[in-house]
Request: fold
Amino acid sequence: MSTLTFRTVGLGDDALDYLAAWDLQREVHAQVADGAAPPTVLLLEHPPVYTAGKRTEPHERPLDPGGAQVVDVDRGGKITFHGPGQLVGYPIVALPDHVKVVDYVRRVEEALIAVCADLGVTTARVPGRSGVWLRADDRGPERKIAAIGIRVSRGVTMHGFSLNCDVDLDWYDRFVPCGIADAGVTTLTAELGRRVTTADVLPLVERHLATYLAWEPYDATPDYDARPEPGRGPRIELVTPR
Reply:
């Protein structure tokens, strides 16, 4: 397997507009699918933007997006937010024959769980809900710290994940994140009581993605209790067949 290539394409003041990043994803995706480029992970921040996946319901969209764009996208899942203080990753990788799409999602989640653990934040999966979560405790309800939504075309992934480092959580008050109204959203900064920037997290994300996307067997972090999305059983958030 080819070694992952990591490209940081816009952090901080150089945050990359979502539509420009989507164009870049499509360009890199075509190159990887054609065998003209190695598996690549784009790492970046976006200016404030809401992205609505294929299952987004009209009532889940923000009534007042606060000046942020609302963009309909071709990934699985519902609506989410991207903005400053959030590290976004777009792994564009060909899936080996023995790696199913759900396994790929679990590997990305496991990498983010490991990143949080390195920083002292304990997280896990919640079966029935994608992403990375903290348990409910005396500080708040069950809360999501990383979101995942992907698409696969020609056997190659695109879109990806977002990890809340130091993002302004007021943006999440404008909509129902991922369509889940019975849980919260958090950041590494909020959980640790100290500022954690995207630059702080970047090398950890690269290290753990390189490990889990090498496609070797791994021991998965034990899940929290299953909590299917309201009105829906456990789901697979997908995507286009090979």
About this structure: The chain is about 25% helix and 25% strand. The two ends are 19 Å apart (CA to CA).
